[in-house]
Design a protein that fits this description.
mainly alpha; 446 residues; two-stranded antiparallel ribbon
Length: 446
């Protein structure tokens, strides 16, 4: 199939708007959810056609938005993220407004990864910050801290891009600071746990998990940013990976546990970009896919558990395994996939990241190993707290719902089938990394 002959890109960018406009006229929450799922399935079909049809480094589109070798594999991943988010939302919490935000968030994600114009990319990233603000304000939750962080992010990003356009290298440092805020890199991480606590899981996930800061770093920083500033940003990412993993281990609140786990895992993806090496960027591009999907799948299990038992703590053993064994197994394997357990979708990307760290020094490899170890301990601690111990007495039946069963099947396919990535996919990510860094194959060989 010739991608150029079918307007897949225009269709993918238009469908979320059509879906949001349709849902805006729906007042019945179940009907709004069905319409939203319908449009997301259509969008997934279009995104899948793009990913399967576009090969090599072919670029299809306009100067503003285009499908290239960077964006093509991410399109179905981002749509799957939104689909899992909606499937995992309890019926009692589905509203037309939430469905509209999910669809608009899908447009933002697709627009960011396909945007080729720097200033339009800055504008889209700025507009995207309004979606969580919309929900926080509608729920009556505190939003001043979030507004302060995101306002600083937008100002620094815009000013940095302006200075880069004038030829000033100082602009790259401002862009790095802005992306550090957006990605929750230490010490700009405080807003992330608060967002998960105050907003719904859906809005927080759809703002954090697409890792738009990674797309922005690829488009705005590579290959022109000074190596010294990228190295400093990479160190900050490693610190965040250790910090997030350590904080996830000691958390007693499930949402804060998940928020800190996200901080640790997503900072590893950003570290691969900041390493500005072909192997590091190859690992980052692969890890971008696996981290997004595995963290979304883990959140699916957590949200399904909370829908049955309410917000749970990790300071005691709840013993819910016999009540929801399917969700318990899903929680365990999706959590292990986050840390690269063998046989899961996260294994190969984490191996690539460790292999790329060899040239950076032993201390980098040790730091990555420590972060993975802390994340693994945090996940197992949470699993034992939620699912082991004395079984609580209850007369209420808590079977898995039809939509949750669909979500679990999708998750199983992602986690286990994704582990068998063809070598050609990794090779294509390697070629993309060479292209982004302006490195030729001959130079790499020597």
């Amino acid at each position: 199939m010739n991608v150029a002959a079918v307007p897949f890109l225009e269709l993918a960018l238009l469908l979320p708007w059509v879906g949001a406009a349709t849902v805006a006229f729906v007042r019945h929450p179940p009907a709004a959810a069905r319409f939203s799922l319908f449009f997301l399935v259509l969008l997934l079909t279009a995104a899948g056609a793009i990913a399967l049809s576009l090969g090599g480094t072919t670029t299809v589109g306009t100067r503003t938005f285009a499908i290239d070798a960077v964006s093509a594999p991410m399109l179905p991943v981002l749509v799957l993220l939104h689909l899992l988010t909606l499937l995992g939302t309890a019926k009692a919490r589905v509203t037309p407004a939430l469905c509209i935000r999910v669809l608009l968030s899908a447009f933002v994600g697709l627009a960011v990864v396909t945007c080729q114009d720097r200033w339009i990319l800055v504008g889209i990233l700025a507009i995207a910050t309004l979606l969580p603000f919309w929900e926080l304000r509608s729920l009556g939750k505190p939003f001043r801290g979030y507004v302060l962080y995101m306002s600083t992010f937008v100002v620094l990003l815009g000013l940095g891009q302006f200075l880069v356009g004038t030829g000033s290298p100082l602009g790259y440092s401002l862009i790095l600071l802005a992306l550090g805020i957006r990605g929750g890199i230490v010490p700009f991480h405080g807003w992330v746990p608060r967002l998960f606590q105050n907003a719904t899981y859906a809005s927080a996930m759809l703002f954090i998990l697409p890792l738009m800061e990674v797309a922005a770093a690829i488009r705005l920083l590579l290959p022109g940013a000074p190596a010294g500033w990228l190295n400093a940003a990479g160190i900050a990412c490693l610190v965040t990976a250790i910090y997030g993993g350590g904080m996830a281990v000691v958390q007693n609140d499930v949402r804060r546990f998940y928020a800190n786990l996200c901080l640790s895992q997503t900072s590893l993806v950003l570290y691969g970009v900041m390493a500005h090496t072909v192997n590091g960027l190859t690992a980052a591009l692969c890890l971008w896919v696996s981290a997004t999907l595995s963290l979304a799948a883990l959140a699916f299990s957590i949200r399904a558990i909370e829908a049955r038992f309410g917000r749970l703590s990790l300071d005691r053993h709840h013993g819910h395994y016999e009540q929801v064994p399917g969700l318990a197994v899903s929680f365990l394997f999706t959590g292990l996939a986050c840390v690269g357990f063998p046989g899961t979708v996260g294994f190969l990307p984490m191996e690539l990241l460790f292999a790329s760290s060899v040239d950076q020094g032993l201390w980098v490899s040790f730091t990555l190993a420590m972060a993975a170890m802390l994340n693994g301990i945090a996940i197992l601690r949470a699993y034992f707290a939620l699912f082991t111990g004395r079984r609580p007495a209850t007369s209420v039946s808590l079977p898995i719902t039809r939509l949750e069963r669909v979500g679990v099947v999708i998750i199983a396919l992602i986690i286990f089938a994704g582990a068998w990535l063809p070598p050609g996919i990794v090779a294509s990510r390697h070629r993309v990394a060479e292209s982004l860094l302006g490195v030729t194959a001959t130079a790499v060989d020597h």
